[in-house]
Amino acid sequence: MIQKPNKKTNRPLFSSGPCAKHPNWSITNLDISVLGRSHRAKKPKELIDLSINLTSEILEIPSDYKIAIVPASDTGAFELAMWNVLGPIGIDVLAWESFGKGWVTDIINQLKLSDINKIEADYGLLPDLSSVNSDRDIVFTLNGTTSGVKVPNLEWISDQRKGLTLCDATSGLFAQRVDWKKLDITTFSWQKVLGGEAQHGIIILSPRAIERLNSYNPPWPLPKIFRIKKGGLVDDAIFAGSTINTPSLLCVADYVDALKWAKEVGGLTKLIGIADNNLKIIRDWVDKNEWVSFLAKDRNTVSNTSVCLQFSLEDEVAKYIDTVHFSKSIQKKLEEENIGYDLGSYRDAPPGLRIWAGATIDPDDIRILLSWVEWAYLTVLKEQ
Ligand SMILES: Cc1ncc(COP(=O)(O)O)c(C=O)c1O
Q: Which of 10, 58, 70, 47 shows the shortest CA–CA distance to 245?
């Protein structure tokens, strides 16, 4: 019998979205005084405004950038961006995992744009960032949630670029520092690093993005939930709490609670520090165990939020079990023991485990989880 570790995780929550809430979260801490009121009334609007201002403060967004809450989570925010600004010039679109590949599909098959340069790489790798042409629009993902591969920095984007950068940053922001002057349109949803609720997206626009929006009208029809212009110009009201359609004030209250927690613990530097430390714990463990490795091939690109791991099986074992089944069996054991939920790799990604290591995750829980992964690995091996 393989000895089970004697400690259990305090919170078995390691999903890559919706992610675990912050450690002191309680529904009774939310400011629910606005519930049941119109989102256009003064007090609810102030709460929405507060969420935008705290976002700006914690993410250290330049004061000339604009921030709005938009419908349909990160997907809604990113689609809104693509549908509003793409088309006038050629596009370099980067993809190295499922979500990035989805943006490629939408640009080609839905918007039917033709001057597209696809710069792709397989799971575990990053495409050649140096081949990107900053005279064109650039569409990319900051952190590939399904492969655990992040861009290590944004230095490959020119400060003198002619095109716009569109960055899907949903699983990186609040855990990875970005150089805002490299980003023109950035999107994320609340459900990731801060453990907020899904279905609300945030879009962050640089002055150059606003310029494009004001000067360009796409040839295709725009659904109402993507329309952010009034009288031909971007409607400033959306940056001051007047959302396109009705937001959930409960979700806004929850997001404000998460932002206040983020501020209390020490702001962006601290949030990044927690995620980096969680990754270090996993890295030290991976370095000690030759049967497990990061899906990310380059150490500089290993994500500190969605950490994707692979198991290697000796030939003798591989005769009896494939890696998909093996990884699923490990995942099942961790769930049955209430040690870790939702650890499976994404459906399109190579088999393995995916551990969310963002700022709401306690390092002790990561340590305890890893001891159980070892137990589960040995137990599943023995069962073959
Ligand atoms: C990189 C990336 N983009 C987009 C999405 C979609 O986000 P949402 O479900 O918030 O629309 C996800 C969700 O995991 C993601 O990881």
A: 70
Q: Find out whether the beta carbon of 84 lies less than 6 Å from any atom of ligand 1.
A: no
pLDDT per residue over 304-331, tens digit each?
999 999 998 887 777 778 889 999 999 9
CATH numeric code, 267-383: 3.90.1150.10
pLDDT of residue 1: 75
Cα(188) to centroid of ligand 1, in Å? 8
Q: Is the CB of 171 under 6 A from ligand 1?
A: yes
Q: Which residues touch 371 (CB under 8 Å, ≥6 apart)?
A: 5, 7
pTM of the model: 0.97
Ligand 1 pocket residue status of 301, Cβ below 6 Å:
no
Q: How far apart are CA 133 and CA 153, in angstroms?
A: 16
pLDDT tens for 69-114 read: 999 999 999 999 999 999 999 999 999 999 999 999 999 999 999 9
Secondary-structure class of domain 33-264 per CATH: alpha beta
Going by C-alpha positions, the residue among 361, 367, 384, 362 that lies closest to residue 311 is: 384
Question: Ligand 1: does its nearest atom lie under 6 Å from the Cβ of 75?
Answer: yes
Domain ranges of the chain: 33-264, 267-383
Q: How far apart are CA 365 and CA 12, in angstroms?
A: 8
What is the secondary structure of 221-232 as a DSSP string? Answer: ---GGG--EETT
